[in-house]
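Input chain follows. Return structure tokens only.
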Amino acid sequence: MKKLIPLLIIPVLLFACKTDTPTPVSEQKPPAEPVPVVVDEALGGFSKPPRASSNETENIYPWKTDYDINTAIVNRIGLPGGYERIPADKGSFADWLRHLPLLPEGSPVKYHNGGIKGNQVHHSVIDLDTGKRDLQQCADAVMRLKAEYHYSNKEYDKIAFNFTSGDRVAFSDWSKGKKPVISGNSVRFSSPSGSTDTGYSNFKKYMIQIFTYAGTASLSKEMKRVNVNDIRIGDVFIQGGFPGHAVLVMDIAENKEGKKLFMLAQSYMPAQDMHILKNPNNRSLSPWYDLDFGSDLQTPEWGFTSGDLKRFR
């Protein structure tokens, strides 16, 4: 049994992105709508068809039973003139992210309770369920996609995240019945049940535990810092803490001069649809961001620095 650090108090972890001190679970109310950021109201994007489209993929998206490749990011979001998407190995995490399905154009971002978000800062909405509880916020959505990728490839041993306490919780253990048991500020693990359940419903239960007891503070410690000039699809701009935030690099494009653009996605608080962010700094380039942003990266609802880029180990 390990002692948890004081931060492993359930309400704090549930709202790792928040700025206010949360109340006990039974008393929680949806946080107030953040002050709107003045950004482009147009959807943005480009009128030309994508320069690098895809007609087929072997990628699997477990939550989708009716996947349509025409809704994939690579087929729905075009590129500025002179740019091409960088190569991505077939079946890689980068390729998988690039083929994520999007909801129909013009779809609003909704909260976990079905309410419409007041501050619509997105270009497109990713077709990914949020759940009914206020759990799948910023870092949670990043961990969800990383885990879903490995799950889709039956790489169960690669699905593991740390609680804020530092305790490592692996799906390979969870599927065998070895599960974390939380008592006050301590964690122990139950004995394996003797059977294995890698079914999708059990995987989703595992992710709910991760969402509950992990967040930006824990995820940022798990990842390694990388130079922004070495940016890759699947990297994360992340500031761990209470509050903290994380946005995922969804795609990268490059021109013949070596100039790079990148695309970002986020969830936020309260838990809401994961979405492709607009670029509030450059309407003509949105939803792409110029890698030559200097030291400060301003997204619609959070500011990062070039030193905040990290990568899964």
